[in-house]
UniProtKB/TrEMBL annotation:
Name recorded for this polypeptide: FMN-binding protein
Organism lineage string: Bacteria, Bacillati, Bacillota, Clostridia, Lachnospirales
Domain of life: Bacteria
Native source organism of the sequence: Blautia hominis
Protein keywords: Membrane, Transmembrane, Transmembrane helix
Transmembrane segments: 15-36
Length: 145
């Protein structure tokens, strides 16, 4: 009887390196799945719950015959920018608290992403109320029905 015995010689270094590379490849695959799997779920949830139609929306304000606009820039879920547009030098001189009041309001709106529970000082009370009404009007135009 002739036996055909085959002897396989494995070097222990090669076995250990192979095991290490296989473990690293599995860890990399799991890490990539976790990183990109969550983003897809978060993006789809964000798109389905869109609050605004992305764009730039304006609301006019008229003071003593001078008209200017409050411009609100939004994306689908965030208020990105609030500014005064077409504000003449005459209006700026007649109503010097307009721009500082808008800056104070917009910083609070950016932080909370809403116009509710906004605080303002007594010296800017009426100016702030006027600006908040215009901002709310522009946001109403942007809201998803």
């Amino acid at each position: 009887m002739s036996s055909k015995t085959k002897i396989v010689v494995l070097h222990m270094k090669e076995v250990i390196y192979t095991i290490i590379f296989v473990v690293l490849a599995i860890l990399l695959a799991v890490l990539l799945f976790m990183m990109f799997g969550k983003d897809r779920k978060a993006d789809s949830a964000a798109t389905s719950a869109a609050v605004y139609h992305a764009g730039v929306y304006k609301s006019p304000i008229t003071l003593n015959g001078n008209t200017f606009d409050v411009e609100v820039t939004v994306d689908e879920n965030h208020i990105n920018a609030i500014s005064l547009v077409n504000l003449s030098e005459t209006t700026t001189a007649m109503y010097p608290l307009m721009e500082p009041a808008l800056d104070a309001l917009s910083s609070q709106i950016y932080a909370s992403q809403t116009t509710e529970n906004i605080t303002y000082t007594d010296e800017n009370k009426y100016t702030s109320m006027l600006l908040l009404d215009a901002i709310n009007e522009a946001l109403d135009k942007a809201k998803v029905d």
